[in-house]
Amino acid sequence: MTDLRIEGLTMGYGPDTTVLHGIDLTVPSGSLAAVLGPSGCGKTSLIRVIAGFLRARAGTVTVGGRTLTGPGTHVPPERRRIGIVPQEGALFPHLSVAANVAFGVTDRATRRQRTEEMLDLVGLAGYGDRMPHELSGGQQQRVALARALAPEPALVLLDEPFNALDSALRAGVRADVRAALHAIGATALLVTHDQQEALSTADIVAVVRDGRIAQCGTPQDVYDHPADPWIAGFVGDAVLLPATVVNGTATTALGTVEIRTPTGATAETPRQGTVLLRPEQLRLSDPGESTPSGSVTDVRYFGHDAMVTVAVDGLDTPVNIRITDHVAPRPGDRIGVRATGQATLHA
Amino acid sequence: MSTLRAPWGLLGPACLAGAFALLPLGYLAVRSMERGPGFAWGVVATEGTGLLLARSLGLAVVVVAACLILGISLAWLTVRTALPGAAVWSVVATVPLAVPSYVAAFAWLSAMPELAGFTGSAIALTLVSYPYVYLPVAAALRGTDPAHEEVSRSLGVGPVRTFLRVTLPQLRPAAAGGALLVALYVLSDFGAVSLMRYDTFTRGIYTSYRASFDRTPAAALSIVLVVMTVLLVAMETRTRGRRGHSRTGTGTARPIVPAPLGRMVIPALAWCAAVVTAAVAFPLGTLGYWLTVGNSGTWDLAGLVNIAGVTLTVAALGAALTTVLALPVGVVAARYRGRVADLLEHAAYAGHALPGITVALAMVFFAVRYAYPLYQELPLLVCAYAVLFLPVAVAATRAAVLQAPPVLEDVARSLGRSPLRVLREVTVPLAAPGVAAGAALTFVVCMKELPATLLLRPTGMDTLATRLWTETGVGSYADAAPYAAVLILLAAVPSYLLGRRT
């Protein structure tokens, strides 16, 4: 398997519309990258250009050092060795499961064996004679993955493959797909608008906004160090607080926190800024004279945790606090709130 | 939908098919201008032409008006009211679509010979073509939101005025589209008017062609007829386009609560029964009568079997050629947007605007001049069928391909298949049932075709349609009946199979 390099990729549907503005993205060999963005951000166009179904206006796409899209180069889809797993699987309805998986295997001698290996890999050994409509949605999706992997592609593209599955099934299929991809060391690109899916499945997350890569890093990087408040809010719940920063420490209405990104924050002279915290970084306590406090306005219970909204004295907007305690406060209660851990500074 | 260009292996055959479909039209134009536009104008600009024009248009106006009344009333009764047996009525009301105009004319003429002329033509044509109004109007009635009518009633407007002010305006696009189809049918019809001996444009062209050795007048008259039908097709296309727009965003309408008919139930049932009797029961009854009047002694059983076999053969050849030509055009039209694809689709639909008689004439001219060995030989007739019925097969192919998700083709490409192999291994197998349905439909319309078959058939060859026409023309109704019966039976088999699929 091989690495994917995208440089300066620009694409538009007409002379006046540009959908992708100079995308740069590198996915190392054997890793699973997620392209995360809201609908209409250009992420589907991006994978259609990589797969060769759309032509780029400028920029290059190379897989394992082989240029697929570049100035004067457009390798047709069938010669790219890029497998795709579309939404809802898109199995060929007129072919059996085995024939679907074998579709891309050109070597007749190994076709049968390869098909069985792939079905085994996705946990569907013995399903070869079934027709696609006899499978559940999750099974269809796993056959679609087996079909994409069977010809040993250089790269696998997954276009929101878990969208059509109901939420109970989604986590399981997601884990199976991730395990299958890792088992054979495939380089893969997963397109999704679901931040939970991107963070939990991928090794690398690229956040796309308006046809540009807004941030690219490990899931933890993107969650803990979002490049700007929009990304912070897109990849998770965010608490944004005005702060005075001096010497790497921010003083906020909820107490002092350390600044995680040291650049520009270690100056001795105080400066104003906005710090980002996650709701799970805030702690509730009994109201006291010395701790910041406020009144509870709302409590939303999720089972594994709960989100408490508190109007803190001296803050214009209420803050969200994620608690895992079994005893939740009730709306109207007076309560103390304190920030812990490290925060990200935005100017 | 791929934005890549269609591969040449697909575009080439599609362009050939498009050029093939346009050939007769082009040649007709060239041929009629051969002796100068002055001569052609001299032929056309006569009192006789004016009379033909007036007769054709007059017949079209009367038939369209009658079809609107029958079609809209039946559609409203079957869709919107508590008419007893509404489901059955709605099926029976569409049966006349399967009756060729010359069979209807045979039935009325043999029962009441005094109807020959305008009245008989108008009755026969109305009773076979009102489903063109009924079907789209019924669909529109099913699609419109009954809430509009409820709002109107709640605002104090009575049921009749609600129908006129709220319901009818919403039906206008559907009814207009249907009316244009009926007008097209009437202008192109040859079978009914020729049996009823009513001189319209098509019959005029036929007579002129038969009567004179100089074929330029027939060509010039054909051009006038084609201009009229092209105008109608253009109008029909425009209403269809607008209808599409007004339908978007209607969302899911609530199920319709049928309006109680009350004391009107008896007149409503009587009206439906009268229409269905005249359009379905009467032709079948007449046919049965003439079948019993004749006897096995007068029946030429061997001849009948022979002619049925010939009919099936030419129809099968016509359907095969048409389907093969339609396949690349249908795929390009469904999968590749762009100027070339649009142009191709329009070219393939040329047959829609060409009356059978004009296509046949163009083929005759072309063969006599450039391919004399083909003149009055089977291949020419099969080619005429392909030009005439390419629209039927292209529409079926296009719809079938559109139903196959394009993402499957993308997946096949990504698995290493070239575009042409994707077509063969994925698109065609998925679209096969729809393409086969189109082929069956083409087979049926080829079997019923009359004017082109009359002009282009090899000497001495008869199909069921031509034999029925000849026998009826000389008034030997009992001899004509078996051919009509066999034709209806043979056409009913594929029609029944098609109906069961949908």
UniProtKB/TrEMBL annotation, chain A:
Residues 4-235 form the ABC transporter domain. Keywords: ATP-binding, Nucleotide-binding, Transport. GO terms for cellular component: ATP-binding cassette (ABC) transporter complex. Its EC number is 7.6.2.9. InterPro entries: AAA+_ATPase, ABC_SmlMolc_Importer, ABC_transporter-like_ATP-bd, ABC_transporter-like_CS, Mo/tungstate-bd_C_term_dom, P-loop_NTPase, Transp-assoc_OB_typ2. GO terms for molecular function: ABC-type quaternary ammonium compound transporting activity; ATP binding; ATP hydrolysis activity. PANTHER family: SPERMIDINE/PUTRESCINE IMPORT ATP-BINDING PROTEIN POTA, SPERMIDINE_PUTRESCINE IMPORT ATP-BINDING PROTEIN POTA. This is ABC-type quaternary amine transporter. It comes from Actinomadura rudentiformis. The lineage of its organism: Bacteria, Bacillati, Actinomycetota, Actinomycetes, Streptosporangiales.
From TrEMBL, chain B:
It is a multi-pass membrane protein. CDD domains: TM_PBP2 (cd06261). It is found in: Cell inner membrane; Cell membrane. Keywords: Cell inner membrane, Cell membrane, Membrane, Transmembrane, Transmembrane helix, Transport. GO terms for cellular component: plasma membrane. GO terms for biological process: transmembrane transport. Its main location: membrane. The chain crosses the membrane at residues 52-79, 86-109, 115-135, 174-196, 216-235, 268-291, 303-336, 348-372, 378-401, 422-445, 480-499. Residues 53-234, 308-498 form the ABC transmembrane type-1 domain. Belongs to the binding-protein-dependent transport system permease family. PANTHER family: FE(3+)-TRANSPORT SYSTEM PERMEASE PROTEIN FBPB 2, INNER MEMBRANE ABC TRANSPORTER PERMEASE PROTEIN YDCV. This is Iron ABC transporter permease.
